[in-house]
Design a protein that fits this description.
This protein is of the alpha+beta class. It has a single domain, classed as Cytochrome-c3 Hydrogenase, chain B (Orthogonal Bundle), CATH 1.10.645.10. The chain is 44% helix and 19% strand. Strand 12 and strand 13 form a beta hairpin. Helix 4 runs antiparallel to helix 6 and helix 4 packs antiparallel against helix 14. The structure holds nickel (II) ion (NI).
């Protein structure tokens, strides 16, 4: 006899997923699953299409992260065409990417997670949203809105459209940035670094006052992965893939094209999300985390001054060589927001983004190309095989949320074992179960290659019988 509890849908995450908690005869947690129930096969869909269409087509995989897919596809095309893109194009792609990371992180922190942090996990669910934050701390909510708008405006200035910019193409980008637009963005960004640093101070205060049940309910060991530059610094657009262990010690640092040598993927029948793992350690012990926490645990420094200062304060606060708390994803995310603002300003002050050569001509030279970037949620991999005419014969995507699948499942398990006792889940515990998932800011529409937003759920079951179910 066993019971199951299902959280369905998990709210305030991007996409649709479901948490199932199975109880044994004594009402104790026997098993948990975080699973994803919608599926649409984008990899199959692109087979037979001209590879040059990939930046535009794959941007439609997800309404939340179109820019990330566009850039990963464009990088793969550069490889297939065997071209080095011009300096200006490189910087313009990075600028687009920084706008995307900024707006996505601002959405995650201010809109989706700050309600729990500012109002409390046990606050009235009706008020636990961005409107509630607007009532409680209007300045914080307004700054969140300003930060997100700025990221969106950077994207819009480059691609004309906020959601699906057709900007990155094989061989470069479609056009350079208009100087007036660049100057307007510089002006718009003036106070944003101060906003973020004040928000980091606020978050540190919130963390300092949290009890262990709130701060440490999803703390556990994993490996960590992210791109790094040649000095081991934070990289979002380019660089080598670095994987470190639970102590922060180097396991691998490889060219992005060799990702398949170290990453294996396993399927489970109850989830459409695959489970990537570090091959060397095997499926059971090979979990690693990506995204803000994964990246900051993998890098040695950040190459912008204010973000690096915050990074040092952040690392000083760790109990060991790395941060294991899932809740610290929020802190790492804010530090990356600061990095994006500083990087955007540097790029906007660079003449190359206004006067550089936007692109070089391309034609198929190779039959395989891999594009890897650090999307807001973590490492995003696109790989294409093409025939001599440049038609896609095979495509493989590993999106950020998929890398975190094992870790998110571990988080749900850890939280359930700590809090769930008996056939019902109190509202604040239910919210904590969901918020483990929110730390990772999963994009489920992306990871299942499904289109559009879908909700998420929790169910409690015993012996196949549903005892409690929450859908909201
Ligand atoms: Ni997405």
């Amino acid at each position: 006899m066993s019971k199951k509890q299902v959280i369905d849908p998990v709210t305030r995450v991007e996409g649709h997923g479901k948490i199932t908690i199975e109880l044994d005869d004594d009402g104790q947690v026997e098993d948990t699953q975080f699973h994803v129930t919608e599926f649409r096969g984008f990899e199959e869909f692109v087979e037979g299409r001209p590879v040059w269409e990939m930046p535009e087509i794959t941007a439609r995989i997800c309404g939340i992260c179109p820019v990330s897919h566009q850039l990963a596809a464009a990088k793969a095309l550069d490889e297939i065409a065997d071209v080095e893109i011009p300096e200006g194009a490189y910087k313009l792609r990075e600028l687009l990417h920084m706008g995307q990371v900024l707006q996505s992180h601002a959405l995650s922190f201010f809109y989706l997670s700050s309600p729990d942090l500012v109002l409390g996990y046990d606050a009235d669910p009706e008020k636990r949203n961005i409107e509630g934050v607007l009532d409680e701390n209007p300045q914080l909510a307004e700054r969140g809105i300003d930060l997100r708008s700025f990221g969106q405006d950077v994207i819009a200035a480059l691609g004309d459209k906020k959601v699906h910019p057709d900007f990155a193409i094989g061989g470069g980008v479609t056009n350079t940035l208009d100087r007036e637009a660049g100057e307007a963005l510089l002006e718009q960004s003036e106070d944003l670094d101060t906003y973020v640093r004040e928000t980091i101070d606020l978050l540190r205060e919130i963390f300092a006052e949290m009890d262990d049940d709130t701060l440490d309910y999803a703390t556990y060991e994993t490996g960590y992965m992210g791109l790094v530059d040649s000095d081991g610094g934070l990289e979002h657009y380019d660089g080598d893939i670095r994987l470190v262990d639970e102590q922060g010690d180097l396991l691998e640092e490889i060219d992005d094209g060799e990702y398949a040598d170290i990453i294996g993927e396993r399927s489970k029948e109850w989830s459409y999300l695959k489970f990537p793992y570090y091959r060397e350690r095997g499926f059971e012990n090979g979990q690693y985390r990506v995204g803000p926490l994964g990246r900051l645990n993998a890098v040695e420094q950040l190459d912008t001054p204010q973000a690096n200062e915050e990074f040092e304060r952040y690392m000083d606060a760790a109990d060991g060589p790395v941060h294991e708390r899932s809740t610290y994803y929020h802190w790492a995310r804010l530090i990356e927001i600061l990095y994006c603002i500083e990087r955007i300003r540097e790029l906007l002050e660079d003449d190359d983004v206004y006067e550089g050569i936007p692109n070089v001509p391309t034609k198929p030279e190779k039959t395989n190309g891999v594009g890897v970037i650090e999307a807001p949620r973590g490492t995003l991999i696109h790989e294409y095989d093409v025939d001599d005419n440049g038609t896609v014969t095979n495509a493989d995507f590993i999106v950020a949320t998929t890398h975190n699948n094992g870790a998110m499942n571990k988080g749900v398990r850890t939280a359930a074992e700590r809090f769930v006792d008996g056939p019902e889940i109190p509202e604040d515990i239910l919210n904590k179960m969901e918020s483990v998932i929110r730390c990772y800011d999963p994009c489920l529409s992306c990871s299942t290659h499904a289109i559009g937003d879908m909700p998420l759920e929790v169910t409690l079951e015993q012996d196949g019988q549903v005892l409690d179910e929450v859908s909201r």
